[in-house]
Design goal:
The protein is an alpha/beta fold and 413 residues long. It has 2 domains: 175 residues, Rossmann fold (3-Layer(aba) Sandwich); 226 residues, Rossmann fold. The chain has 14 helices and 18 strands. The strands form 4 sheets. Strands 1, 2, 5, 6, 7 and 8 form a 6-stranded parallel beta sheet that branches. A 5-stranded parallel beta sheet has the order 10-9-11-14-15, sandwiched between helices. Strand 3 and strand 4 form a beta hairpin. Helix 1 crosses helix 5 and helix 5 packs parallel to helix 11. The longest helix is centred in the middle third of the chain and has 25 residues.
Length: 413
């Protein structure tokens, strides 16, 4: 089965920062090799940097359109790539055959590439107001963070426009339609003590690339009801927002509206397509803004990631949410590729007991298996869930695919 998405990172071998930035993309999108809980479980990332052959000619490993449903090509463009004729020809050929190219500016000369690439909107990892006293390591660190954030946003917008088995679109299609709408984040908060933090978070989101927000303080019209707009924007199965941040203050758990927003976001819905057995919900990030007062935990949170509120490092919070959105979208595409048969259902996020029970209750057929993204729940959690669910087995996508391959081989034999 071919990959739903592949990312190709290209850099010139003489580039000072190219290799470091390529590794940052690999760790962020594919998973850090040092972390066994995520190594190799994200989006496939492939390196492309030309090697010399006899006679001085450069050899470029091919990028084939049929290797993935969506191929994302990321040239890290510095002065070496611009002045190298072999690279210019290679990039121009890629631009003629691939739709999704996100060039990154590492040098002002980057815009002197062939017109097929120069006319694109480049990802900019340097800012005009960057301190002049920065050392090389300071600038590289800033470039890493900006590249992973902006590239994640671009990939999220792209994946939202595709079904799991959608073919590459033609060059004649509208770029605006193909790029997708900007990500819009629902900010769930308690009015009693969460408005100030949420306002600061909203301001940071609006200056963090190409993001938008739904914040009822400013997005609900005066004199109109708030029930339907909140339901449309918080609901998991709607396309009005892409994800939710719950600003978990002391008052949050005691507010019925906050609980309702969480439940709307976490309720699984069936993805459109030939199979009606692929489930998803809205990606959620819990922002821990507790202030040493008594509160309680809400079961609706489930397995959502949690990060402590730090006004001096809001960018990390936003990037964590973006990565959660991207991986959820990726596994929605992959789950559709599986085309699960009767009794087998997929869920594109972290499974918990509430979600598993809702999937079982929402379908009319008997659920035998629920498939989840790798690495899946820890062994102890998986055994506990299967014990509570009775006759429902929990497998990862990888385990299911290997099991199906084994069955086909032994059946044919």
């Amino acid at each position: 089965m071919k990959d739903p998405v592949r990312i190709y990172v290209l850099w010139h071998r003489d580039s000072r920062d190219g290799g470091e930035l390529a590794r940052e993309v690999f760790h962020w999108f594919r998973g850090s090799p040092e972390d066994l809980n995520e190594a190799g479980y994200g989006i496939p990332v492939h390196y492309r940097s030309a090697s010399a052959q006899a006679g001085g000619d450069l050899h470029f490993a091919p990028i084939l359109p049929d290797e993935a449903d969506i191929s994302v090509i990321v040239p890290l463009v510095d002065e070496n790539m611009v002045t190298d004729g072999s690279w210019r020809s290679y990039l121009d050929a890629l631009a003629q055959n691939f739709k999704h190219i996100f060039p990154v500016t590492l040098h002002p000369a980057a815009y002197n590439l062939p017109e097929s690439l120069a006319q694109l909107n480049f990802i900019r990892v340097d800012h005009a107001n960057d301190p002049e006293h920065w050392q090389w390591k300071d600038r590289l660190d800033a470039r890493r963070k900006r590249l992973r954030s902006l590239l994640t946003q671009a990939c999220c917008r792209l994946l939202q426009t595709y079904s799991g088995s959608a073919p590459q679109r033609s060059r004649e299609d509208s770029q605006e339609e193909d790029a997708g709408l900007p990500l819009r984040i629902f900010l769930s908060h308690a009015k009693a003590d969460g408005v100030e933090i949420t306002s600061k978070l909203r301001d940071q989101l609006l200056h963090h690339g190409q993001l938008q927000t739904f914040f009822d303080e400013s997005d609900l019209a005066f004199g109109y009801g708030y029930n339907d707009p909140l339901k449309r924007n918080a609901g998991a199965g709607t396309q009005h927002t892409s994800a939710m941040i719950a600003v978990y203050t002391d008052a949050y758990a005691g507010r019925p509206w906050c609980q309702r927003e969480l439940r709307l976001a976490r309720e699984p819905f069936e993805l459109a397509g030939r199979s009606r057995r692929c489930w998803a919900n809205k990606p959620l990030l819990i922002l821990d803004a507790l202030d040493h007062q008594r509160t309680r935990f809400l079961g609706e949170v489930g397995q959502a990631p949690v990060i402590r509120w730090n006004p001096d490092n809001v960018g990390e919070t936003i990037d964590l949410l973006l990565r959660e959105v991207l991986l959820t979208l990726y596994y929605r595409h992959r789950s559709k590729q599986l085309q699960p048969p009767r009794g087998v259902h997929t869920f594109s996020g972290a499974l918990d007991l509430h979600i598993a029970l809702q999937i079982r209750n929402k379908t009319r057929e008997k659920v035998r298996q629920i498939l989840v993204p790798p690495p899946g729940p820890p062994i102890a959690d998986r055994n506990w869930l299967q014990q509570l669910l009775g006759d429902i087995e929990i497998l990862t996508f990888d385990e299911y695919e290997k099991d199906e391959i084994w069955k086909k081989r032994h059946t044919s034999a």
